[in-house]
Write a sequence for this structure.
């Protein structure tokens, strides 16, 4: 697909529903891609930029505001999922543990899940949560694509250095890829949309 076709695919994405646990998720059919990342890494902003909508996914300067699994319909058979941000949300520890349990259930048991977009701040990549997601992708044999967000916060050379470091770190993982991404400058937008389109358009068991 070219840039215009990719824009057309995602620009009509709409909010579908929110779920606190697996049993509340939409019917487990079609294909969906989940967005995961540490709190304040730019996950909701990336979803908004990819869909060319400023307010589709709720953004906040307060880390940890995404507390539910938020589902967005690309069309009747394709969805994007904004997962709860992991990290330093100002909520009780017991609630954090509960979020993590439901997140794990979703990642392990959701049949229609065909890939994960892992959001990392380009200035602080490969934190423990990121490593956990990489290991999960390896264990469950799901493709994972990393967006190194906030690339506009670094010089070109510094951004390329961070990208090279992450590429080295994921060398032993199969079906894991990485790119630079910037919401305000649209850096890497077409590349990210292309990955999503390939995953959502592909035929396979998960689409049945």
């Amino acid at each position: 697909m070219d840039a215009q076709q990719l824009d057309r695919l995602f620009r009509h994405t709409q909010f579908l529903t929110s779920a606190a646990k697996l049993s509340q998720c939409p019917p487990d059919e079609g294909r969906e891609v989940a967005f995961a990342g540490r709190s304040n890494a730019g996950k909701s902003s990336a979803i908004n930029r990819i869909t060319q909508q400023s307010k589709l996914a709720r953004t906040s300067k307060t880390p940890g505001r995404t507390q539910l699994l938020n589902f967005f319909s690309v069309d009747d058979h394709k969805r994007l999922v904004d997962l709860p941000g992991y990290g330093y949300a100002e909520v009780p520890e017991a609630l954090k543990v509960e979020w993590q349990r439901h997140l794990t259930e979703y990642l392990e048991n959701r049949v229609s899940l065909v890939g994960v977009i892992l959001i990392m701040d380009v200035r602080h990549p490969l934190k423990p949560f990121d490593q956990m997601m990489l290991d999960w992708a390896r264990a469950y044999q799901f493709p994972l694509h990393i967006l190194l967000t906030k690339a506009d916060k670094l010089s070109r050379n510094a951004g390329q250095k961070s990208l090279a470091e992450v590429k080295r770190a994921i060398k032993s993982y199969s079906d894991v890829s990485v790119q630079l991404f910037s919401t305000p400058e649209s850096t890497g937008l077409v590349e990210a949309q292309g990955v999503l389109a390939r995953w959502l358009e592909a035929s396979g068991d998960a689409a049945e």
